[in-house]
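Molybdopterin molybdenumtransferase
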Amino acid sequence: MISVEQAESMILSLVHPFDADRNREVLELPDATGRVLAGSIASALDFPHWDNSAMDGYAVRYADVQACSAESPVTLEIIETIPAGYQPQQTVLAGQAARILTGSVMPDGADTIVIQEETQREGNLVTILAAPQPNAFVRRRAAFYQAGSPLLSSGLRLQAPEIAVLAAAQCAQVPVYRQPRVAILSTGDELVSIDQPLQPGDIVDSNQYALASLVAQAGAIPLRLGVVRDEPEALKQAIANALDRADMVLSSGGVSVGDYDYVEDILAALGGTIHIRAVAVKPGKPLTVATFASTLTPSHPHTPPPLLYFGLPGNPVSALVTFWRFVEPALRKLSGLPEPTWKPTFVRAKTRVALRSDGKRESYLWGQLHLVDGLYEFNLAGGSHSSGNLINLAGASGLAIVPIGQTHISSGDSIQVMSIGSALSKAF
Ligand SMILES: Nc1nc2c(c(=O)[nH]1)N[C@H]1C(S)=C(S)[C@@H](COP(=O)(O)OP(=O)(O)OC[C@H]3O[C@@H](n4cnc5c(N)ncnc54)[C@H](O)[C@@H]3O)O[C@H]1N2
Ligand code: MOO
Ligand SMILES: [Mg+2]
């Protein structure tokens, strides 16, 4: 059995990220929220576009006002009013000023803004009551960004700030990576769909919903392929079909040592290379990872990269935990996001209650992360921590980690907690 860290690095090394040229689409800017930029963006515009005023006041020549004060004020002639969006028509000469509003273009000749509060106005005369700093409140052209330099880098996830920058730079259409298509299969004779009446022994296929939700949250497209019976031929066809349609395949169930756990044999029979059969993680031990030569774009002149297959354990909590710990990083890498964002987010937290493990596997215990006076605290979910109990997983925002070899962590101790869901942002 390999360690969690070994599995994580092996999985990441098996992922070939989308190619920015071959796996891109162009979207209208309002449709691009949450998508990943495929290619760097530069702008032909300087930001600010012109020297402009940061305040409402008067544009003056510093030399005229540098010595003034309330006791010895200086009076200047106002030659023009410059509202936002207006191109100044006149040059400010010695002894002159222009009335200017926030964001308006600086007139030629002026180099400094005196804020309105330090002036007195009478008709077309303004008296300056305090000496400003040289160049005060002038926002210089290109001070924020110089035309032609890199504006946004490839791999950035587009959220409101990036959308604002692209809009300001007049990028109405943006190149983004296409979303990975992730096929989801549930295996098991006991599984029924959400609307089917339950017979004795039946269980609703909740993993299909959970995994589709996780895939969508990760910015990919879930293909919900439904339930496959524990029957080798049916399973073989279903897996082959999933491999044909997707960039990544997730199945749940059928990966342990039971009589009807066929997944691993079928992956091998279909020509897959099995890289991982078990990981020292609880829950999630029988995680199976394989690669297949991709069949998605056979007509393409380039050989498509191999396709990743995750055989997740069927227990509902095991399926979710292995997704968060192993699948999500792989999806982030595949999606074109940069390396610092691939791995999960871990924080140090103080556990409010004692934590236990058998010490044989790295254990992930679900609960809630709270920020208390700027420090994280972890509260274990009440009730059973069986990997079959998905009920108390609801509301969880963190997974407390008990390392291999450790059987007891006392309440109040500092622990490592993996953030799940949107508890902590992945964006940077
Ligand atoms: N003798 C051993 N038995 C088991 C071992 C072991 O090492 N030796 N490992 C255990 C561990 S750990 C796990 S985890 C499970 C994994 O089992 P499988 O991946 O083979 O999953 P199944 O046997 O098909 O199902 C397990 C459990 O999960 C329920 N399930 C399955 N699919 C779904 C679904 N789509 N939605 C909701 N629930 C699902 C299923 O009904 C079973 O209750 O194996 C242990 N056994
Ligand atoms: O790994 Mo299993 O997921 O312990 O129940
Ligand atoms: Mg089984």
